């Protein structure tokens, strides 16, 4: 006999847990399935462990910037095994704590790979679960690149579990993962190469800010190349040989580790969507504005698996809340992705919210651009950081901030103030009038407006 539930959730990350908690609080019988340790990508294999490692690299970098300026830093370096052990103090207890939290709320958990066996049925570990509603919150996985030797690539998940960092590391792709891990690896002493097949790094971010970050990236010794497509990877006794093409030139890189940093796609491959009548195309679910399947109204989706909003943890959370409201009360909530701040945790970090200058022009908006290199400003100078800048766009007439792009110390925190102002509809002049604690990075905001 199948186990019957009001809601069956596939995935235990932020999206799945948000929906599960809310529906359980309403009295529903809820089950959560995950084939990996409970907690999802962010808590175990993404944002959180990555930020722990970046934090150590940032501390090292800051001390070295003060070398000769009052700080002696001749022998300072990163002990990778010790740093990984520290990281595991966060990730190690997490699956058990999360699963216990689910049980404490009366939510059943199942470990194993989920597979649809009907429009309202999912098989897992020899059992069948039936649900009035089923939520797909399975997250994302590295995209298939279709190159020879692809199996030799180390995934970002695996990189975050390395016992030792090799001497020569190559990253295939120049997005979030590529830049963050490249900066981390270089600060930890590795020789680093980053290959991006398109003409631009970090496509969603402001071009001028990315250009400043790229100059810094190359300045610390990272070989970062655009227009360079990886064609194959060979394993040898000495490591790996990566074959690539840039224009009409064939390139060859000898490395100890090659890392997949070329993007992620919805983790749908093993779900057997067709058995549930769930329409999909080119690896994407067909969903309405309420994150409900167009072909099977019992099925919803949330988080990275939807490819609707930015692939960020806070977005997954609002997706989960929206889906729960729609299942409980009927479709009425469409997630709002219009103001979502994001950051690339390089050293220094790059942060963004709202439109880029190119997007604002494409929409025909009339706006003023405030843009400057701020390496000489106190916030950067006091840290001896030679790379920082900003670009802020303010709409003419309304005075609305329509986009903010920051590079430099504390940008990942300051961007949240811009996001709050934009979400609340505060005009630039009102934000500029705000008296921030001085001297802090936030007190620079007035000069940016």
Attribute tags:
alpha/beta; seven-stranded mixed beta sheet; five-stranded antiparallel beta sheet; 449 residues
Please describe what this structure looks like.
The chain has 449 residues and is of the alpha/beta class. It contains 14 helices and 23 strands. Strands 1, 2, 3, 4, 5, 6 and 18 form a 7-stranded mixed β-sheet that branches. The radius of gyration is 23 Å and the shape is globular.
Q: Report the principal-axis shape.
A: globular
Number of strands: 23
Helix content: 25-40%
Largest sheet composition: 7 strands, mixed
What percentage of amino acids are in beta strands? 25-35%
Mean pLDDT rating: 96
Tell me the distance between the termini. Answer: 64 Å
SS class: alpha/beta
Return residue spans where pLDDT drops below 50 for at least 5 consecutive residues.
none
Give a quick summary of the entry.
With 449 residues, the protein is α/β, with parallel strands linked by helices. It has helices spanning 14-25, 40-45, 47-65, 80-91, 94-104, 156-159, 176-187, 207-219, 313-329, 357-362, 378-381, 411-424, 428-433, 445-448; strands spanning 3-10, 30-34, 108-111, 115-118, 121-124, 127-136, 140-142, 168-172, 191-195, 223-225, 229-236, 239-246, 249-255, 257-260, 264-266, 280-281, 284-285, 299-301, 342-344, 350-354, 367-373, 389-395, 401-407. A hairpin with a 5-residue loop joins strand 19 (342-344) and strand 20 (350-354).
